[in-house]
Amino acid sequence: VRVVESGGGSVQAGGSLTLSCEVSEYTLSTYCMGWFRQAPGKEREGVAAIDSDASVWYTDSVKGRFTISKQNAKDILYLQMNSLHTADAAMYYCAAGIGLDGSNWYKPHAYGNWGQGTQVTVSS
């Protein structure tokens, strides 16, 4: 499974960014897709996920600010990030996994395919 993130960059607090993740054909209709982030010295954290049936999950700190979506026909996953906080700064990763649900979508070890990451910097 090919997983390639893009769209990271530098923004001021309160700003917005949209991350994209290009995947192999049919991945979005088969796999659960997750966005994770990892800041220096911290563990990798599940941010949001969307299942093959379009069920979505978010970690509490991003609810109401981030939106995960996908375009199956274009094989692209998105993470729209609004009202960014300095605490949102991290390397963001896209990942694909099978058999995930509300009880485990946020666990990195549940995903078998990862991208290389894209850096998000938020300045105050």
Topology:
Elements: E1 3-6, E2 9-12, E3 17-23, E4 32-38, E5 45-50, E6 56-58, E7 66-71, E8 76-81, E9 90-97, E10 113-114, E11 118-123
Parallel strand pairs: 2-11
Antiparallel strand pairs: 1-3, 3-8, 4-5, 4-9, 5-6, 7-8, 9-10, 9-11
Keywords:
124 residues, mainly beta, 11 strands, 48% strand, globular
The residue ranges in which pLDDT falls below 50 over 5 or more consecutive positions are none
The helix count comes to 0
**N-to-C terminal Cα separation, in Å?**
37 Å
Radius of gyration: 13 Å
How would you describe the shape?
globular
Order of helices and strands: EEEEEEEEEEE
Structural class of the helices, strands and pairings?
mainly beta
| Main pleated-sheet profile | 7 strands, mixed
Helix proportion: under 10%
Record field, number of beta strands? 11
Proportion in β-strands:
over 45%
Indicate the mean pLDDT: 97
